[in-house]
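Retro notes (design track)

What went well: tokenization of the new backbones is finally stable.
What didn't: we kept losing track of which sequence belonged to which structure.
Fix going forward: every design gets posted as structure first, then sequence, in one message. First example under the new rule, 280 residues:
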């Protein structure tokens, strides 16, 4: 497994593989790898011969009061894990190489950016779109794999790929959870022992709403109320949103006639957690 840090070297490497007709897959991550990330590597291997995993904590997608400075960094174990899972190249650029002084260009994906998480994180998705566009340019993948855990991000990237004509297939991976239902996340390490016992109630609420939907409930408001009732049992949870939106466009829906995503964001203590379930 090779580790590349320079953007120019990454582009040269990718171009060489393109010339040799190798099929390249990119799995973008911010590191602190867990089973969720590894599942995306497995998907990447099903669709390509050469797997590039990027490890980069992207300052552009963090707000002023967010956790950029404290985001978990576990490079040694990340590198070992990537190797075990058959990654061919780790791309670990430096911030100043990707965002040199006087960097001006950003990518915005209107509408999708401003709903759900975009309301409390105003520049987050523009930061995501910008870094992913850069990674696409530098790694030249045929396929890129993203997790449904960040559902809004997945919809945004698919839109950007269409709008900017990136010749890249976007694949998605299901949410990998702990045994108690909590979605795996690098940020779960912020939770105290007590908070960690409370956090699975997010998935319990989502599952209850899914069950209700399977029993025939199609009113988004009533389904969201079910989730809220589960979360309201815990006073330490501050609900940011519980919403049902069209699974493809993230537009609001008044009745469930098409696949929709039931998405939740909460703050538990100091930790912001997101989760979702697709209602089909
Ligand atoms: P991150 O390192 O948090 O930016 O995540 C990198 C990629 O892993 C994104 O596409 C995420 O959606 C995906 N991911 C994160 N957590 C999970 C999970 N529990 N299951 C599946 N994919 C995940």
């Amino acid at each position: 497994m090779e580790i590349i840090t320079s953007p120019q070297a990454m582009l040269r490497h990718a171009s060489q593989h393109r010339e040799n007709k190798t099929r390249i897959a990119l799995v973008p991550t911010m590191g602190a790898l867990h089973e969720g990330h590894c599942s995306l590597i497995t998907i990447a291997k099903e669709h390509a011969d050469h797997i590039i995993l990027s490890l980069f904590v992207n300052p552009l997608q963090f707000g002023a009061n967010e956790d950029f400075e404290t985001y978990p960094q576990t490079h040694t174990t990340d590198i070992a894990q990537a190797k075990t899972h058959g990654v061919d190249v780790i791309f670990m650029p430096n911030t100043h190489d990707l965002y040199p002084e006087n960097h001006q260009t950003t990518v915005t994906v209107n509408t999708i950016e401003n709903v759900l998480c975009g309301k409390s994180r105003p520049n987050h998705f523009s930061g995501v779109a910008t870094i992913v566009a850069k990674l696409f340019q530098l790694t030249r993948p045929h396929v890129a794999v993203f997790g449904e855990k960040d559902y809004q991000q997945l919809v945004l990237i698919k839109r950007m790929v269409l709008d900017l004509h990136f010749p890249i297939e976007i694949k998605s991976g299901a949410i990998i959870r702990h045994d108690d239902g909590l979605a795996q996340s690098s940020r779960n390490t912020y939770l105290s022992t007590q908070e960690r016992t409370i956090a699975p109630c997010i998935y319990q609420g989502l599952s209850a709403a899914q069950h209700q939907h399977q029993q025939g409930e199609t009113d988004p408001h009533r389904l969201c109320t079910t989730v809220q009732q589960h979360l309201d049992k815990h006073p330490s949870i501050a609900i940011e949103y519980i919403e049902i939106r069209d699974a493809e466009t993230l537009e609001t829906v008044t009745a469930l006639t098409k696949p929709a995503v039931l998405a939740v964001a909460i703050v538990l203590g100091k930790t912001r957690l997101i989760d979702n379930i697709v209602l089909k």
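Added context from the reviewer: The first helix runs from residue 7 to 19.
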